[in-house]
Design goal:
Layout (H helix, E strand, L loop, with lengths): L11 E8 L10 H18 L2 E7 L3 E8 L4 H19 L12 E5 L1 H13 L1 H4 L14 H4 L12 H4 L6 H17 L14 E2 L2 H11 L20 H12 L5 H12 L4 H8 L3 H16 L2 H13 L6
Parallel strand pairs: 4-5
Antiparallel strand pairs: 1-3, 1-4, 2-3
């Protein structure tokens, strides 16, 4: 198996996963978990890492990480190396603690940050460790929900501001967002990763490909970018207008479909509807919740998707 690509540049945004060797536990108790969190803190202080979300499971952990200085390898060498050294010393063991290299998916931040934070925070629920998401003490979720003080190194406000500019209301809305994810079996990022290392729309993938990937790194085994091409916002609006007519939900339906299928950044979608990035996200989410309980809306949206040849996606 080839080594995963490592693409590093200033202000890059990553979903990081690191697993125990042979899928064995990497934490034995809360002291171990606190030790890893202390290395998150020192990575932020020493190397400028911006940590947006995290979750510590039994044999792996997740990070939503931003690198203002383009130094992902340095940050992860510090976190994983220091923690492995601590763990082996404390537990009188030798050998690698973690399974090979960590997995780092380069992410289009504006489009996927919210969904990734939900995916990360719902890990304990999917693993059936807890019944309600706010129970789990070893993730950033409780800080997002305002249930405990946020550590200085955690930057949850970036994602919460997409939900509401008022911090308390953002916490309440984010909780609803999590609950919605539990009910509908929320999106899995693994299904949309390109070149084994990119998560984003077509424009993002093309830009990263042209700037950072050589022809040798793009083999015939990875998907052709043409297969990822999605529709323009103009086409989506046109088809929604034809199907919805005077229906009052037409505008929000167009926002929802553009958000989900166009592959455009939130800012670009917002230009068509006179909205900020957070407004696009909120309108899309509200429409999704409304549609889940309204069969007529579901039928209208499905007609639009069929006309756009997106029903299979």
């Amino acid at each position: 198996m080839s080594r995963p690509l490592r693409i590093e540049y200033n202000n890059a945004f990553y979903h990081i996963t690191a697993r125990g060797n042979d899928r064995k536990p990497i934490f034995t108790d809360d002291s171990d978990r606190q030790a890893l969190l202390s290395h998150y803190s020192s990575a932020a202080e020493r190397y400028g890492a911006i940590i947006h979300a995290y979750c510590l499971m039994t044999n792996h952990y997740h990070l939503l990480l931003e690198t203002p200085h383009g130094n992902l390898s340095q940050i992860m060498r510090h976190i994983n190396g220091a923690y492995a050294s601590y763990f082996n010393t404390r537990h009188s063991r030798v050998g690698p603690l973690l399974q090979g290299r960590y997995k780092a998916i380069l992410v289009e931040k504006d489009t996927y940050a919210q969904e990734l934070s939900r995916y990360i925070h719902l890990n304990p629920v999917r693993a059936k460790k807890i019944k309600t998401v706010e129970e789990y003490p070893w993730s950033s979720c409780r800080a997002y929900l305002g249930l405990e003080e946020k550590p200085q190194w955690l930057h949850g406000e970036f994602i919460l501001e997409y939900f509401n500019s008022d911090s308390q209301e953002a916490c309440r809305t984010y909780f609803k967002f999590l609950q919605e994810g539990i009910k509908k079996n929320a999106w899995n990022p693994q299904k949309e990763i390109v070149f084994s290392t990119l998560l984003g729309g077509v424009d993002f993938v093309e830009e990263v490909k042209s700037k950072y990937l050589s022809d040798k790194e793009i083999t015939r085994d990875v998907p052709d970018l043409k297969s990822l091409m999605k529709l323009s916002v103009e086409e989506i609006i046109q088809q929604v207008n034809e199907e919805f007519g005077e229906h009052k939900a037409g505008r929000n339906a167009a926002i929802y479909i553009a958000h989900k299928y166009s592959g455009k950044a939130l800012k670009e979608i917002g230009i068509y509807f006179g909205l900020r990035e957070s407004g696009v996200s909120q309108a899309s989410r509200r429409f999704s919740m409304t549609m889940a309980e309204d069969r007529q809306l579901q039928q209208l949206v499905n007609k639009v998707l069929r006309k756009l040849d997106l029903s299979r996606m």
